[in-house]
Structure formats: C-alpha cells, structure tokens
Design a protein that fits this description.
Helices cover 29% and strands 20% of the residues. With 142 residues, it is an alpha+beta fold. The protein is elongated. It starts with a strand and ends with a helix. The structure holds adenosine-5'-triphosphate and magnesium ion. The site of magnesium ion (MG) has 2 residues, from helix 1.
Length: 142
C-alpha cells in the first residue's frame, strides 16, 4: 500500500525567498502527522504543494500514491483540506451546511441527509446540528 503522503526533494522559490529547499517526507497510512516549524519556515507552502494549489519548482510528491503534479484533479478528489478559516455559511445550520457541500460535490441526492447525520455523529456535533453556524466555535466550524 502507498504511504498517505510521500515527498522527495520538494523545492519552491518566491523571488529571492527559498520557501522549500529539498523537503523529504513520508507519512504512513492511518497516522496523524504534525508539521511544526518557525514562522516562515515553509509549512503552508508544503501543504499547498501537497494539496495541489501550488506547483513545486522541483521534486516529487504523491498522495495515496497519486502524483500531485501529474494528476492534481485525482488528488483533489481524494483529500479534504480544513484551513484556518472554514468556508461555511454562517446563516445555515450545521446540518444544512453539510447537505449544501454534498450538493456542491455532486453526492447522490438520496443519501445527502443520511450522510450529513453520519458526519455530525462522527464529529460529535449531533446536539448542535440544528443551530446556525454563527454560534459555532472555530473548531466546530472546521
Ligand atoms: N505567495 C507568496 N509570495 C511570496 N512569498 C511567499 C509566498 N508564499 C510564501 N512565501 C514566502 O515563503 C516563505 C515560507 O512561507 P510559508 O507561508 O510557507 O511559511 P509557514 O511555515 O507556513 O509560516 P507560518 O508559521 O508563519 O504560517 C516565507 O518567507 C514567505 O514569505
Ligand atoms: Mg503557515
């Protein structure tokens, strides 16, 4: 089985700033991985390369065995990215936001409600499900 993430020699330069300088990384399946470092060290740049929103100047990276440079759309279809700020609709409830995202990503219509309920339970949000997002904490939104 391919590692969840495998990067080899990733480099990225912005003008005179060397944001990534030969990053090697292997993240095995089923693990939680924390990438720590000083401000400006290149963490966000590395995440952008791995999630296909920035192209590296050199090096290779695969997510679940799929090359991020050659098959960015395939990588995107397999991953989720929770940023610092969650792209949610504050006026809708937790349940409504999940159904909306299901519609936008073309999930089967008949399963939208059941899948929303399932996710609410996984994230322990069942009790908050019918409250508008405006009253959710940052973590609850993400
Ligand atoms: N779009 C950009 N244009 C110019 N320089 C950039 C750009 N993105 C990142 N950089 C530079 O690349 C370096 C790495 O930035 P990056 O955002 O990856 O750091 P970081 O480790 O996420 O920092 P922080 O802990 O502050 O979030 C910094 O010097 C930053 O100024
Ligand atoms: Mg950052």
């Amino acid at each position: 089985m391919s590692p969840a993430i495998e990067a080899c020699g990733l480099t990225k330069r912005y003008g005179y700033v060397q944001a990534l300088d030969g990053v090697d990384l292997v993240v095995p399946h089923g693990t939680v991985f924390g990438l720590l470092g000083p401000n400006g060290a290149g963490k966000t740049t590395a995440v952008r390369v791995l999630t296909t929103t920035v192209r590296p100047d050199a090096g290779t990276a695969t997510v679940l065995g799929v090359d991020v440079r050659r098959h960015p759309q395939r990588v995107r279809s397999m991953i989720g990215l929770a940023g610092q700020y969650a792209a949610v609709d504050e006026r809708l409830t937790g349940r409504e936001n999940l159904v909306l995202i299901g519609q936008l990503t073309h999930q089967p219509r008949s399963q939208l409600k059941a899948r929303a309920d399932e996710l609410l339970e996984v994230f322990r949000l069942t009790r908050a499900a019918d409250r508008p997002l405006s009253g959710f904490s940052g973590g609850m939104r993400r």
